[in-house]
Amino acid sequence: MSQTYFALLTAVGEAKLANAAALGTQLQISRMAVGDGNGNLPVPSRTQTALINECYRADLNELKPDPANASQIIAELVIPETEGGYWLREMGLFDASGDLIAVSNCPPSYKPQMAEGSGRTQVLRMVLIVSSTAAVQLKIDPSVVLATRAYADSLIVVHQAAADPHPQYQLRGAITSLSANTQLAASHEGLLLLSAEAGARTYTLPAANAAFGVRELVLRRTDITANALVIAASGTDKLMLDTTAEAAGQTTTELLFAGDFLRLRSDKAGKWWCVGQAQLPGSIASGLTVYSAAGNYAYTVPPVLRSGRRVPMIKVIAGGGGGSRPGTSAGSSAGGGGGGGGVAHKAVNLAGISSVEVIVGAGGPGATSNGSAGSPGGASSFGAYLSATPGAGGGAGSGAGAGGIGVGGDSNSSLGPGGPGFDYTTGSSTNNRISGYGGGPGGWGLLANSGAGSVAGQTAVGPGGGGSGGVGAGNGGAGAAGTVEIEW
Fold this sequence. Notes:
Oligomer: single chain
Mean pLDDT: 88
Low-confidence stretches: 138-144
Number of helices: 4
Strand content: 25-35%
Structural class: mainly beta
Radius of gyration: 46 Å
Largest sheet: 6 strands, mixed
Distance between the termini: 94 Å
Number of strands: 32
């Protein structure tokens, strides 16, 4: 039986393919056309230069050697479902110059179009025997071709089998467990499980320079102890955990609890940027420490503040001044009140700080000698970060004590001065006296007439308040101690 359906090279195709093989160049086949043969099944001829009746031409979808026969090439064309309305009886291959290189016939098949109520995507393949498949090259515009399911499936198989199918993305890397002080390196890239079970530990990051490149490390704590687990930057590098609190970055941070983690990314320019971090549990996410008794203290910075994961607001109030004692008898004037202490507020980043000296200023004693001023309060401070000056004592006689002022805070203010003592006359009464009130939450001023005798001033009622002045030979009231508060 003679062969009805076949493909062959045209004379032009034979010549061009032979020339390409001889010169070591490649024949660029780029397009395929289909036709209806003018209603009849054509017989391909090597002398053809065109199809009998071409109906559609488009870029090849694929041109490849036959995996089952190295001397054959397979050309593939995909006709979309929107194209059609004719019979398929002939096919032709064209090179980049537009010459017909190969021609074939095929079993008649009608290609419908959507407007007719039916449509399908048609895949056509032509198989050619050539002397050298290396002399044939596919030349197409990849933006206009369509992929068959089989072609897409073959790409997925190759993709999944690749060791690194997405080189633009960083591989997850290995999982490494460490429990001793370690200088980390590029070999530690991936997930690091860190422990401080046996004591405080420091894990130092690689230098974030151009040689190291852009890399990510995930550092996770595994132990449940209270030992410090420090993550330190190398050299002059910085950790960029919270640029709002510390725009220049910080040199260390800490992993605080089992399961706590940091995901850090180097930028090749001396910085490690935090791109992921565990949420802090409520038990450490907020807190308040208050020093209200006069004295010197060593504040042990909690790990959550030492790590830079929280930035506390510090409030410092100095001690208030004592009230004055005006005279020697009931007929003497009213004394002046002591001034309130200064007040300072400031957000202080304590990253990497283990301890801070805290001083709470005492309240100034009230005057106990006739005609003498009250004593000033004591200054308060939180390390060298911020401080407050004390309120002055009520002046000798009836003078008011000046208020202190905050120093070094984001906000600096005063609880205010004390009030002066004064005499006044109402009707036939003379030598009525009101002592000066204390500044801030201080002692209140006292009213006494000429027959009331001596009255002692009142002690301040709140932190940093001044004592009020005495009346007659009454002692001045004492100022109150200041306070230092750390809240986050």
